[in-house]
Amino acid sequence: MRKSTGAGRFAPSPTSELHLGNIRTAILAWLFARSTDRRFLLRIEDLDRVRAGAEHAQIRELLASGLSWDGSVTRQSDSSHRYATAIESLNRDGLLYECFCTRRDIAEASSAPHAVPGIYPGACRGLGDAERARLRLARPPALRLKADVGTWTVADEILGEYTGPVDDLVIRRNDGVPSYNLAVVIDDAAQGVDQVVRGDDLLSSSPRQAYLGQLLGLPAPRYAHVPLAVNAQGQRLAKRDGAVTLEDLASKGLGALRVRDIILGSLGLPAGSLAAALRAFDPAQLPREPWIVTATTLFSTGTPSVTPNR
Ligand code: GLU
Question: CATH 3.40.50.620: does it fit domain 7-77+227-299?
Fold first, then answer.
């Protein structure tokens, strides 16, 4: 019998095969969920770009790593009705406005002297009806949230309290697709996810998402933003770094379970089985620095072959 009714999740975008960094995040999400008696869910975030076959490959790779999840795999594309309902409710409450800015407009506005980079300066918030009607002829609008705070604070298992900027985030893109920020908030709440474990490249999205959730009357999840896998230059691991996907590594003689052991080693956890890693798992002991992955990390001999980089 599980003690908690909450859930953790792994939510990959089906844009490519998973690489070492993604699998490491998935293993961490599993460890966080299981060590707190939560359910563990797999959600495919397919609102945006989708590469044919990627979802299938990702599921195969997660299974090959020994991970399992509760219930069936869910997809954002099955939740359109929920996003539409949330957009209607925000709109009814007068919390949305049409934005006609192009990427270029936004880039220019946010490089202006008093602008904060990466923060939408609210250019379209004050448009009058006539101007909006005129602009609609040229370009379909996105819908943005009228945020009435400048920052929001979230609780992170690794980083403690994190306060970051909140701006008038996009709720529905100008192609009519709900934004990632909206979808994630709605899906997590609908699935009972109260523990969000993901790469720390998404840390700056969390205050926006938590603020939006609060406006929608949804409970705030706890977060754990985990360090990314990077190459020797400190850049986020990517295809250009050679064999970084499970398939490429397998073709070089490193099977999925061996890769998992290397990942567990990088986390300072015992190799051999996820059950053993779970017994030893302590969030307070996790490395705080990015995991530097080089050919030596992966192909030196001996078991385990890596020293935790902390
Ligand atoms: N789908 C996102 C990604 O693959 C992750 C979103 C999340 O975990 O909140 O980067």
Answer: yes
Ligand 1 and 203: CB distance under 6 A: no
Question: Among the residues of the chain, which ranges form H helices?
Answer: 20-35, 54-64, 80-92, 103-110, 129-138, 180-190, 206-215, 246-251, 256-266, 274-280, 295-299
Q: What is the distance between the alpha carbons of residues 151 and 148, in angstroms, rounded to a whole number?
A: 9
The whole-number pLDDT of residue 3 equals: 59
CA of 288 relative to ligand 1 center, distance in Å: 20
- The confidence score (pLDDT) of residue 59 equals 97
Atom of ligand 1 nearest to the CA of 15: 4
14 CB within 6 A, ligand 1: no
* CATH C-level class of 79-194+202-221: alpha beta
Say if ligand 1 is within 6 A of residue 13 CB. yes
Domain 7-77+227-299 and domain 79-194+202-221, same fold? Reply is yes
Q: What is the mean pLDDT of the chain?
A: 92
In the chain, domain spans: 7-77+227-299, 79-194+202-221
- Ligand 1 pocket test: which of 40, 43, 45 has the largest number of ligand atoms within 8 Å of its C-beta? 45
Q: pTM value? A: 0.93
Which parts of the chain register pLDDT below 50? 1, 303-310
Task: Name which of 257, 226, 259 is nearest 243 in CA terms.
Answer: 259
List the residue whose alpha carbon is closest to atom 6 of ligand 1.
11
